[in-house]
Amino acid sequence: EAKRRKSSVPCAYDPQMAETLAERLRIETELRDAIANDTLMPYFQPLVRLNNRTVYGFETLARWQRQDGSFVPPDVFIRTAENAGLITDLSDKLLRKACLAARNWPANLILAFNISPRQLSDQFLGNRLLRILKEVDFPPQRLSIEITESAIIRDIGETVRILDQLRAVGVRIALDDFGTGYSSLAQLAQLPLDKIKIDRQFTANFMENDKQSKIVRSVLELGRVLEISMLAEGVETDEQYQMLRAMGCYLGQGYLFGRPMPAEAVPAYLIDSQRNSENVSLAN
Ligand code: C2E
Ligand code: MG
Ligand code: MG
Ligand code: MG
Asked: Which stretches make up the EAL domain (predicted)?
């Protein structure tokens, strides 16, 4: 593939590439419309305390359904939004909707919300998030923002300033997808973190792989020492759940506990999960 491209004339017509470009432009145009018409929806995936299987909160996951009914994966449209300068608008609208939904939940539940790398280099990010919380009357103490490691390395000083500003009013900070990025342990120590989310590739592999399970153990230990709560992503099986729980991991998230769901499905989920957690406490 690479060889073929090298040997071809620089401006040779490549139908596959043209299609990709056209497709990309089409997605960008559609996304612009979708944001303008406010058709993106927040879905919510439960975050669960592993010791008693009670619900700690929900992570907001953006969902975009096209006219034809198909869903575009967020990995794709978030990147498109970042590149097209649409991410701020997308994110603000989504946060507003997510808060309005979360206001109907029991008041102890946390709302987790992803912030993309691009946004963290915006010096007004903190002000804008706090303005939205005020507008919709959502307590900052119930919001947890999730940032990824790639966001941090760009400008650690500016990132820390923004995070400190948010933390000062009670917003929690979680480091997402831990173990897959490039941040150093030194950076980890500099960041004002409340939570670390261990990437799901560790959860997926640690049952079969002794080395992986040692890594998970030592990352959990690191969290204990730094007094940061730990969450395991991608918990899909009961074995993974029991193992993580035995290791003392505080929180879990994954298909075992629940898939991302629309706001309307949350109340029924909460009733159902209460039954589950009661069963767990009876079993203990
Ligand atoms: P993330 O923040 O790490 O979110 C977790 C992803 O893992 C979600 O994918 C979720 O559906 C998926 N997941 C959860 N449990 C399991 C499991 O047990 N097994 C497997 N295989 N997957 C599981 P999703 O919804 O496709 O989102 C992908 C990524 O897109 C997110 O990763 C996040 O980085 C980004 N994203 C989603 N919504 C937003 C948003 O509103 N803003 C920003 N900036 N990024 C977002
Ligand atoms: Mg996340
Ligand atoms: Mg994650
Ligand atoms: Mg991810």
From this structure: 24-274
- The gap from C-alpha 34 to its chain's centroid, in whole angstroms, comes to 21
**Best of 61, 63, 233 for a ligand 1 pocket test (most atoms within 8 Å of beta carbon):** 61
CA distance 112 to 133: 13
Site to substitute for ligand 1 among 114, 121, 238, most atoms within 8 A of C-beta: 114
The closest residue, in CA terms, to atom 7 on ligand 1 is 234
Atom index in ligand 1 nearest the CA of residue 256 equals 18
Taking each helix axis as running N to C, give the angle between helix 87-102 and helix 15-36, from 0 to 180 degrees, rounded to the nearest 10.
Answer: 50
Q: How far is the CA of 126 from the centre of ligand 4 (A)?
A: 22
Cβ atoms < 10 Å from Cβ of 100: 14
Residue-wise pLDDT for 44-80, tens only, equals: 999 999 999 999 999 999 999 988 899 999 999 999 9
Tens-digit pLDDT profile for residues 131-154: 999 999 999 999 999 998 776 666
Calpha distance 72→152 (Å, rounded): 27
Distance CA 193, CA 172 (A): 7
Listed range (34-43, 247-256, 259-268, 274-283) with the worst mean pLDDT: 274-283
* Burial class of residue 74, CB neighbours in 10 A (0-12, 13-18, 19+): middle
Task: Considering every ligand atom shown, identify the ligand nearest to the alpha carbon of residue 146 and give its number.
Answer: 2
Six-digit token string for 12: 């040779």
Q: What is the pLDDT of residue 7?
A: 44
Q: In angstroms, rounded to a whole number, what is the distance separating the alpha carbons of residues 50 and 239?
A: 12
Sign of the Cα pseudo-torsion (63, 266, 95, 54, in order)? negative
- Closest to 30 measured CA to CA, from 96, 80, 88, 91: 80
